[in-house]
């Protein structure tokens, strides 16, 4: 990696390059890392570009239906896995129907209230087959999913964060917040996170997928609870550092209330580099509107470019946000942006 020269010029989208011919060339092997709505957004775009797509999903959720099933049955939290499977469903009647079914939540006065159908289905197959990967493959086949979904670890994990000012009455005090649900909404400023148990085992299929990929896509998503945890599973992190795949980092469209309140785009990169100084990337995709008067205000683009360069990556500005003004990625725009990056950067980086 020593041949790379950081601080490359910002690349803006080339509007004449679309993604309509993506399937005419050999489909790239793509692995997307994350969790929750951020990973779903990425998968909804990437399934338009390749049939060889693998989602590697965080397993630290401890809230809602997932948290209840995890506590009662001792299983992995299925919620983020379910969301990833739903995002991989096709746009035909079959795909739309199954996506809605597994996302459906029961409403009642009893114990089923709030449970998602897909969570129950996934857990039932885990119990029947005794194999996390095989069970998720069965669900994917039922849904007609355009890709596969894997947990990043085979053991349920907890996130513990060091937070400044978790108690509003003591804004300068450093404390600890445990649990993904609580970390995500903490009123303080998250300084760092760790996983419990420490150094958890990775799912071997997830490690193999990262090592064999052409592209690895990290983000968007909740920075501390969906993106960073992948870098704290030693075998998975090692594969991410060593893979010959190119690496693409997708930044969020806005700071997340609680978790990254007040963060600038470059602060997101600095936090990532602090937790994983070995991580180098090829490109960092940022929504142009978000950093030019959008949710991040008028961002310091030279500073952001320098932060990207320190991670080895080219800063790519493009339009990927939904037109309605909400902080959501538009799947078609995001797919087009991904495809332009894949075509521009190729498979193997010049600095490898």
Automatic annotation (TrEMBL):
<dbReference type="Pfam" id="PF01933">
    <property type="entry name" value="CofD"/>
</dbReference>
<keyword id="KW-0963">Cytoplasm</keyword>
<feature type="region of interest" description="Disordered">
    <location>
        <begin position="1"/>
        <end position="23"/>
    </location>
</feature>
<dbReference type="InterPro" id="IPR010119">
    <property type="entry name" value="Gluconeogen_factor"/>
</dbReference>
<comment type="similarity">
    <text>Belongs to the gluconeogenesis factor family.</text>
</comment>
<dbReference type="GO" id="GO:0008360">
    <property type="term" value="P:regulation of cell shape"/>
</dbReference>
<dbReference type="InterPro" id="IPR002882">
    <property type="entry name" value="CofD"/>
</dbReference>
<protein>
    <recommendedName>
        <fullName>Putative gluconeogenesis factor</fullName>
    </recommendedName>
</protein>
<comment type="function">
    <text>Required for morphogenesis under gluconeogenic growth conditions.</text>
</comment>
<dbReference type="GO" id="GO:0043743">
    <property type="term" value="F:LPPG:FO 2-phospho-L-lactate transferase activity"/>
</dbReference>
<dbReference type="InterPro" id="IPR038136">
    <property type="entry name" value="CofD-like_dom_sf"/>
</dbReference>
<dbReference type="GO" id="GO:0005737">
    <property type="term" value="C:cytoplasm"/>
</dbReference>
């Amino acid at each position: 990696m020593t041949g790379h020269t950081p601080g490359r010029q910002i690349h803006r989208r080339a509007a004449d390059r679309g993604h309509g011919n993506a399937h005419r060339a050999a489909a790239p092997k793509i692995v997307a890392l994350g969790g929750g709505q951020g990973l779903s957004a990425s998968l909804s775009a990437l399934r338009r570009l390749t049939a060889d797509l693998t989602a590697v999903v965080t397993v630290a959720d401890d809230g809602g239906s997932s948290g209840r099933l995890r506590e009662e049955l001792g299983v992995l939290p299925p919620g983020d896995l379910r969301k990833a499977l739903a995002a991989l469903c096709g746009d035909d009647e079959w795909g739309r129907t199954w996506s809605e079914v597994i996302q459906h939540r029961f409403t009642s006065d009893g114990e089923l209230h709030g449970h998602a159908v897909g969570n129950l289905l996934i857990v039932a197959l885990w119990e029947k087959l005794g194999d996390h990967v095989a069970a998720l493959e069965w669900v994917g086949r039922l849904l007609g999913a355009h890709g596969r979904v894997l947990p990043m670890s085979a053991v349920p994990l907890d996130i513990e964060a060091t937070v400044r000012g978790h108690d509003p009455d003591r804004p300068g005090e450093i404390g600890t917040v445990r649990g993904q649900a609580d970390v995500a909404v903490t009123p303080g400023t998250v300084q760092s996170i760790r996983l419990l148990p420490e150094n958890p085992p990775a799912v071997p299929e997830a490690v193999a997928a990262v090592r064999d990929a052409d592209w690895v896509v990290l983000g968007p998503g909740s920075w501390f609870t969906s993106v960073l945890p992948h870098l704290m599973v030693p075998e998975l992190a090692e594969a991410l550092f060593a893979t010959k795949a190119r690496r693409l980092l997708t930044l969020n469209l806005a700071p997340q209330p609680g978790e990254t309140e007040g963060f600038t785009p470059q602060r997101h990169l600095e936090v990532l580099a602090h937790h994983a100084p070995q991580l180098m990337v090829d490109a960092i995709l940022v929504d142009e509107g978000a950093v030019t008067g959008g949710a991040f205000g008028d961002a310091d683009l030279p500073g952001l470019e320098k932060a990207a360069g320190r991670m080895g990556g080219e800063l790519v500005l493009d339009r990927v946000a939904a037109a309605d003004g909400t902080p959501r990625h538009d799947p078609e725009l995001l797919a087009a942006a991904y495809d332009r990056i894949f075509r521009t950067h190729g498979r193997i980086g010049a600095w490898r």
